[in-house]
Amino acid sequence: MTVHIGAAPGQIAETVLMPGDPYRAKWAAETFLDGAELVNEVRGMLGFTGTWKGNPVTIQGSGMGMPSLSIYANELISSYNAQTLIRIGSCGGMQPHVDIRDVIIAMSATTITSPSSGIFKEVNFAPTADWSLLRAAVTAAETKGGKTHVGGIYSSDVFYAERPDLDEQMVRHGILGVEMEAAELYTLAARHGRRALAVLTVSDHLQTGEALPSADRERTFGDMVEIALEAAFA
Ligand code: HPA
What we know:
Layout: E1 15-19, H1 22-32, E2 34-40, E3 47-52, E4 55-60, H2 66-80, E5 84-93, E6 103-110, H3 131-144, E7 148-155, H4 164-172, E8 177-179, H5 182-192, E9 195-205, H6 214-232
Parallel strand pairs: 1-4, 1-5, 5-9, 6-7, 7-8
Antiparallel strand pairs: 2-3, 3-4, 5-8, 6-9
Hypoxanthine (HPA) binds near residues 92, 178, 180, 203 and 204.
Subunit structure: Homohexamer; trimer of homodimers.
Keywords: Glycosyltransferase, Transferase
Function: Catalyzes the reversible phosphorolytic breakdown of the N-glycosidic bond in the beta-(deoxy)ribonucleoside molecules, with the formation of the corresponding free purine bases and pentose-1-phosphate.
């Protein structure tokens, strides 16, 4: 047990998928895992452990934003020995060729600040995905055949942004989408020698204002969960 995770030692798998939404953790565990059991409900941040094709997997909600994800990822790494941590979540599209429902596999995650920024002082650390996971996820996504993009994303501290000039610079520099967690996950994985990746579904678009109808979300989000699982055990 840790401060924020009630699971007993051994109840968390070495491979952890991390959606922001605890109810999406429940849905993904019930849909994709065999024998999924609830292992955490502290603060309603649900976590489940089961197996996928015989491999132990935990799906643990991270909450929204880097400070929340940082709490769960730190405890999963330091107290439960998580080795592979894959964020599955939604993002806002930032490029004209990125459409709603597309999958983005994040090679890097740019930030202004993250909970880890304080330790880097004058250095702009570049949070980067694990190459083996990235490569396996791209292969899995290509096999599935959905439209997939691989490149940089922006991990923002705010959903309701007040700096249109910043979004413009992100777009200008080829950033594919915006979300709020991946940069801290990549930084923690680098610090502790673990593997991390973010596989995202485009749920809304900053330029067109389009948003994914809630009825469509499950099917598109399902592709992302399968890509993450296939990448973890490739
Ligand atoms: N901004 C930040 N995070 C997000 C967005 C967005 O537009 N869409 C999904 N996650």
